[in-house]
Amino acid sequence: MRSLDRHTVLVGGGVIGVCCAYFLAKRGARVTVLERDQIGKAASFGNAGSIAPGHPPINKPGRVRQALKSLFHPLSPLYVAPRFDPALAKWLWSFSRTCTEEHVEFAMRTLAPLGHASRTLFDELIQTEKLRCWFCRDGYYEIYLTERGFESAKREIKLISGCGFHPGVMSGDALREREPAINDRVAGGVFYPEAATINPYEFVTEMAQRAEHYGVKFQTATGVVALRSADGHIRGVQTRNGELIEADSVVLAGGAYSVPLLHALGIRFPLQAAKGYHRDCESKEGAAPLLSHACVLGENMVFCTPMDGFVRFAGTLELSGVNHEIRQPRLEQLTKAASRYLKTMGDAKVKSEWCGLRPCLPDGLPAVGAVSRHPGLFVATGHAMMGLTLGPVTGKLIAEYVLDGSPGMDISALRPERF
Ligand SMILES: Cc1cc2nc3c(=O)[nH]c(=O)nc-3n(C[C@H](O)[C@H](O)[C@H](O)COP(=O)(O)OP(=O)(O)OC[C@H]3O[C@@H](n4cnc5c(N)ncnc54)[C@H](O)[C@@H]3O)c2cc1C
Question: Which H or E run includes 229?
Fold first, then answer.
């Protein structure tokens, strides 16, 4: 059978699943996306909307010490809900072992070519598919209140520059000249020119529409409960209502919810859900815009992204399992933090609030590729804080895996069976 005649089922309709479907169908493949809820309504709905190639993973030297100090503090940017959970304990142990200079460098060298490729694909997609999704190519500013934070950012840019990006150090005054909302307490920051911002939900829905145009079938409210195999080969999926859907290839792109399907096949996949929040705010009537340029509040790890008539404040990382419970004080921390850096927050009016789950693997790298023990099965998840950024390149690579048998770039470091 020609590879294009084979049927590929995508499990999950977030940014990753939709990008995979688009690139497969664009090359003429027969594709069905099964989504248990609605397209793009999980983590891909409310993220910060930053396309941040060259962004280092959260695994960093010193992270464990920093995290231990604030770990169980309910208002710290990184929070672990205290509980007995052996899988989480193992994850934390593996995570701590990769918080080394060598691993960060390895992760950066692995992610950088993917970041460059994805950034180029965003430009191409926006232009050729005429996507309407509030795409802004203006980069972002990472801003710091303290000299200590500013110094650590300057150290980090050496590594980022070595990966072909061009971050630039800026004084507090230079930042205030560029972005009038930044207050006098900001000591300095770094400008990331290769970054861009976008409305993430609009991007996913626009991409889904284009994928549909190329022939992708979307089945929503269709949860997959099992992957069907015969002699180890994956032959399809079983849905919650008992339907068996045959497929020659299955791509698992279920985000933070992917684990049970892999565990059922005996595949070790130590993925944890890392909850993050957003608060969208608009300025009171007649007041100046809250912010004109995207900024990251360096000490608090809060991303502030101007979108269509509002600013999204997004961040925090909470390891509390797979749940969507909003802890109100953590949510409030987002705008409280912003008040320390921006003059305009007195005029902010809350428009909406949200939480979502990042799919995080302990080594800070996603899992993208074929599962050798189960021919026909591919995995595309674990993108943590980079799922939007790496969505297009992941989609292209998965299309190459499924249709050509191997990807066009060396991504052996992302093997799903590496754990
Ligand atoms: C607060 C916050 C801010 C972030 N900011 C950024 C950012 O600025 N830039 C960036 O690049 N990334 C960011 N991220 C990360 C990014 O949102 C995620 O990496 C990305 O959305 C993951 O996409 P996904 O498609 O893998 O998962 P999801 O968007 O979660 O989609 C998975 C989908 O699969 C479906 N599904 C799961 N299991 C099944 C099943 N068995 N059957 C059928 N359907 C199933 C789910 O219903 C869901 O719709 C942020 C995340 C958060 C929480």
Answer: strand 224-230
- For ligand 1, whether the C-beta of 304 sits within 6 Å is no
Cα distances (Å, whole numbers) of residue 85 to 75, 88, 144, 196? 21, 5, 35, 38
Which one of 22, 358, 381 would you pick to mutate in the ligand 1 pocket, going by the greatest count of ligand atoms within 8 A of its CB?
A: 358
Q: Which atom of ligand 1 is nearest to the CA of 382?
A: 26
Tokens of 121: 């694909």
Q: Dihedral (C-alpha) 96, 100, 102, 103: value to the nearest 10 degrees?
A: 30
CA of 122 to the centre of ligand 1 (A): 18
Q: Is the CB of 353 under 6 A from ligand 1?
A: no
Q: How far apart are the first and last CA of the chain?
A: 33
392 Cβ closer than 6 Å to some ligand 1 atom: no
Prediction pTM value? 0.97
Give yes or no for residue 50 CB within 6 A of ligand 1: yes
Which residue stretches of 98-199 are H helix?
Answer: 101-128, 147-161, 172-178
- Ligand 1, atom 2, lies closest to the CA of 47
Any atom of ligand 1 within 6 Å of the Cβ of 224: yes
Minimum-distance ligand 1 atom for the alpha carbon of 240: 42
- Indicate if ligand 1 lies below 6 Å from the C-beta of 276: yes
Domains of the chain: 1-54+105-132+197-268+364-419 (3.50.50.60)
Per-residue pLDDT of the chain (419 residues; tens, 9 = 90+): 667 788 999 999 999 999 999 999 999 999 999 999 999 999 999 999 999 998 888 887 777 776 666 666 767 778 888 888 999 999 999 999 999 999 999 999 999 999 999 999 999 999 999 999 999 999 999 999 999 999 999 988 989 999 999 999 999 999 999 999 999 999 999 999 999 999 999 999 999 999 999 999 999 999 999 999 999 999 999 999 999 999 999 999 999 999 999 999 999 999 999 999 999 999 999 898 999 999 999 999 999 999 999 999 999 999 999 999 999 999 999 999 999 999 999 999 999 999 999 999 999 999 999 999 999 999 999 999 999 999 999 999 999 999 999 999 999 999 999 99
Element housing 332 (H / E): helix 328-341
| Rounded distance between C-alpha atoms, residue 106 and residue 97, angstroms | 14
Q: Which of 385, 389, 393, 394 to mutate to test the pocket of ligand 1 (most atoms within 8 A of CB)?
A: 385
